[in-house]
Amino acid sequence: MGTTGWSTGAGADGALREHRGASDAVGVAVLGCCAAWSLISATTRAGRPEGELLAVLAVIAGYACGRIGGALVPVGASCAVGLGGLCLAFTAPYAAPAPDVVTPLGRVGATAALLALSAGALCCAAWAARQRALRAVLHLLAAGSVVAAAVVDSPAGVTVCAGVVLCSLAATRLRNRALGLAGLGLATAVVAGIGVALAKGALPAGPTDSLETVLSQRRILLWRDAVHLAEAHPALGAGPGRFENLSPTLAQSPLSDGKPHSAVLQVAAEQGLVGVLLLAAAYCWLLYVLWRSARSTQVVLAAGAALTAVAAMATVGNALSFTTVTAGVGLLAGIATAEPLTDGPPDDDATAPELVRDGRD
How far apart are CA 191 and CA 12, in angstroms? Predict the structure, then answer.
């Protein structure tokens, strides 16, 4: 007799667990390589790898905690992450613009990233709830993140939170999660590609002028400095943490955080092509473990939308420079890929339509 989603045979269930264990091992290897490469690049270029190492550690720690919490109390863990992110967005020092911020994508970009992660976590909690009333309340709370973003004056936060909630609702009857995750990955690649093209001056005059108006000419100059460094040091990069010492644009601005405000271009400038490939591999690994997750398609796509929003903001801002954001990324990914502790259906599958219980096939 055929099976649906969670009700697989013992052999199939064992195979799925083996695949998930292998994907976790791949993730550890990829993140370990990211840390090791930053040390290699720093050693050869007299760089400072502390920021990269702290980010990797935060992701790993958050992922482990998310897996544990998501397995024990999926609704409670998701709510804790969502509400915690909202509290941080209101209380953290960078929740309001600082004097050295010239666009809403600077430190406020970190606030927008926290709000996006909060919206994603609350959507995951909603889909994990058994009671329809509680599910509706949690979805309304997730939509409240849009209002929270408006209160803290974060236009980017309003946009990404609304996008995350809409993606979560649109996943209600999506049959194949792979298609949704592929679309999210493509969106991130397009945003990153546009950023690189803009930095290299490869876009037509019209789009370039429009984007410079939104991002500011200074940010574009920072990106071009990063491109020049990447072209001058394609293999090992200029060294982690050395961009602020080598950027002509930063030399003319005493008030600066020393970042090019683009994770892709910063890694390219400081760690070369290998660093960029490892960063891309880490993001692809996140999408892969979401695809292999035992959770429902709605939970997976809600988390994927939030993580994609953070990735997109990281390509045009410095959101990943904040430990709260990188730890939040790990927490949300861990919750969305947590293994159920029982042989029965996970909570989010118990009330889901049959056609969305298993979107891996």
Answer: 38
Task: Please provide residue 162's backbone torsions phi and psi, each rounded to the nearest 5 degrees.
Answer: -60, -40
Tens digits of per-residue pLDDT, 91-120? 865 544 433 444 444 455 788 999 999 999
The DSSP result for 297-330, as a single string, is: HHHHHHHHHHHHHHHHHHTTS-GGGSHHHHHHHH
Q: How far is CA 203 from CA 181, 194, 209, 219, 312, in A?
A: 28, 8, 10, 16, 19
Question: What distance in Å separates the CA atoms of residue 52 and residue 54, rounded to the nearest whole number?
Answer: 5
pTM over the 0.85 mark: yes
Q: CA triplet 317, 271, 334: central angle to 5 degrees?
A: 60
Count CA atoms within 13 Å of residue 339 on its CB side.
13
Cα–Cα distance for residue pair 60/100, rounded to 1 Å: 31
Is the Cβ–Cβ distance between 182 and 132 less than 8 Å?
no
